[in-house]
Amino acid sequence: MTQKAEQINGETFLANVLQYSRNNHYNHINVSVRLNRNPAYTRQVMNVTLKRISKKYGNDERLYMSIPSDNATKFLALVNRLKENMFANSEKQITWSTDLLARHEQTFGYRQIRERDQYNNLEFEILL
Higher confidence at residue 46 or residue 118? Predict the structure, then answer.
């Protein structure tokens, strides 16, 4: 019997991804939620990919994390709330304040790549 995995804490996860990206000079965080199909089962998976486009540090792209999307609902809800606040205030970037970050405040952009479709697929990018 398998145990159900724990929900990730949205604020802690976002703070960790932003801090890791800043420390390693990544400037794009791509989050995609898609159906992962294989012969044994079909489930929805959230992939977080970090991308660096830099002349100084070189270009790089790597998978940061891949988890079932059921375990990432708190993180997706937090990003959605931040995005809605940004659009409601007619701002171009999201400013997020928390004690979990080394700087206590992070400003980042948001770009929607794919809206939710009939299969609940979603893709967006956080720009640092």
Answer: 46
Whole-number Å distance between alpha carbons of 128 and 120: 26
Pairing, β 60-68 against β 94-97: unpaired
Q: Which residues contact 29 (CB under 8 A, 6 or more apart)?
A: 17, 18, 21, 48, 49, 50, 51, 64, 125, 126, 128
Do the Cβ atoms of 78 and 12 come closer than 8 Å? no
Sign of the four-CA dihedral 75, 79, 80, 85? positive
Place of tokens 């929805």: 44
Q: Which two tokens stand for residue 59?
A: 């270009």
Q: Looking at the predicted structure, is the pLDDT value of residue 1 above 60?
A: no
Mean pLDDT of the chain: 89
